[in-house]
Write a structure and sequence with these properties.
The protein is α+β, with helices and mostly antiparallel strands and 436 residues long. 27% of the residues lie in helices and 24% in strands. Strands 8-17-16-15-11-14 form a six-stranded mixed sheet. A hairpin with a 2-residue loop joins strand 16 and strand 17.
Length: 436
């Protein structure tokens, strides 16, 4: 984080503050966090009001004094009196820090770093310019060429008649010369035409810090990580029956979702094929592949401001009820913008589940760097499968899900990705293994 926005101040000038009190909300590119004061004191002056944008880290935002201090002299205190405002950080450094999902102190070149002031700067490139446009929407050929005779078109052009507003009386609705001669514009049509031509046909929405971060990270991942994809159809009939039985005996203590099982199965597969639970890193000029001993699953969560991936840590050692509780808590705080940086930075593997959307049979996901894999889970479908019994051949209904693993070929070879999918499929189709 190199800059942030000032949210709502929870204290006003003159208020007494105790350790642990929330002073102000700070909005970063990933979350909204409460800033808690850790000492006793009095808020003497607010230097940055609510709504201030892109305040650089290190800039003073308020004046605190000891209890009993007269705060009257601080009424005219300004930001200049506090040392002035720092210049905003260079754009490249800001983007680099925003793109990383790692804390900046890991020593890895995949983590954010700040260039020294005397480092050579890249040549400035001209800003791309938007081409001029009339603002009109694209039209089909039928819309551009009304059904009209050549003489009707010529007469309409000569008299300035909007030929699209003319009702044709010829064969098949063809506009004739007589239709043009008889055309009389109505006041409502003229007004509507004038309004339509003057009204904008689009809306420019400024990209938020969150959207810029998502765009940078996905572009970086797609360009730098050679993706390959492995897809499998997985039966979840037994899993759904086990889920129903466990929820029925929970006495309201928990309510397991299909995604909870998928997260746990992902951890089991990562422990059996640890090469997938790895990441590509460059540290001090040396390329390494870091293989993680714990399975920390990043869970994709859609929020009002964009996609976030809070982390369920140590999933291999958690029970299904613990996984479910953590997913619900992290998901709610992600949607409320209350996650702490350590709760979404890091992770060793990601799962993205769109199964709640019945229209999504399958999809592929972009890897979350520096991780080496992500699993995309589609919706559950009831499929007829052939069966053989003593009474003869027939069909049975099976609940199935299509999953697709995206892997970084720098870290995970194709055969290894296939082995991981096989282990995942095995544990999902035999869900009692998750309870062992």
């Amino acid at each position: 984080m190199t800059s942030g926005n000032i949210g709502t101040w929870q204290k006003a000038a003159g208020d007494t503050i105790a350790p642990g009190d929330v002073l102000v909300e700070i909005e970063t590119d990933k979350a909204q966090m409460d800033f808690e004061f850790q000492e006793d004191g009095v808020l003497a002056k607010i230097l940055k009001e609510s709504g201030e944008k892109d305040v650089a880290v290190g800039n003073p935002i308020a004046v605190m004094v000891e209890e009993g201090t007269d705060i009257a002299p601080f009424e005219s205190f300004t930001l200049d009196d506090a040392g002035g405002e720092k210049a905003p950080p260079p754009k490249e450094s800001t983007e680099e820090a925003a793109e990383s999902s790692e804390p900046p102190d890991t020593g890895s070149k995949t983590a954010p770093s700040t260039l020294p002031k005397d480092a050579p700067k890249e040549e400035s490139k001209p800003e791309p310019q938007e081409s001029e446009s009339s603002g009109g929407r694209l039209q089909t050929s039928l819309e551009r060429e009304p059904l009209a005779s050549p003489s009707a078109k010529a007469l309409a052009l000569e008299r300035g008649v909007p030929i699209k507003q003319v009702k044709g009386t010829g064969p098949g609705g063809r506009i004739t010369k007589q239709d043009i001669e008889k055309y009389k514009p109505t006041s409502s049509a003229a007004s509507a035409s004038s309004t339509a031509s003057s009204a904008p046909t689009y809306e420019d929405i400024p990209a938020s810090s969150m959207r810029k971060t998502i765009a940078n990270r996905l572009q970086q991942s797609w360009n730098q990580n050679p993706h390959y994809f492995v897809t499998a159809t997985v039966s979840v009939t037994k899993l759904l029956k086990l889920r129903q039985a466990l929820n029925a005996s929970a006495d309201g203590q928990y309510k397991l979702s299909v995604n909870d099982f998928m997260i746990k199965a992902t951890a089991v597969a990562c422990k059996k094929v640890p090469a997938v639970n790895s990441s590509w890193r460059e540290i001090d000029g040396q390329i390494i592949i870091r293989q993680h001993n714990t399975v920390d699953i990043s869970v994709a969560v859609a929020t009002p401001i964009g996609l976030m991936t809070p982390i369920v840590k140590g999933v291999e050692g958690l029970g299904l009820s613990s996984v479910s509780a953590q997913v619900k808590d992290l998901g709610k705080r992600a949607r409320d913008g209350k996650l702490k940086p350590e709760e979404y930075q890091g992770g060793s593997f990601t799962i993205s589940n769109m199964g709640m959307n019945a229209a999504i049979d399958r999809f592929t996901a972009v890897i979350n760097p520096p991780q080496a894999g992500i699993l995309a889970v589609g919706t559950t479908k009831k499929v007829a499968v052939p069966s053989s019994t003593e009474e003869g051949n027939g069909v049975e209904w099976d609940e199935q899900v299509v999953v697709t693993g995206s892997f970084d070929h720098k870290v995970v070879d194709g055969a290894v990705g296939g082995e991981w999918i096989r282990e995942f499929k095995k544990v999902v189709e035999n869900p009692l293994e998750m309870l062992l």
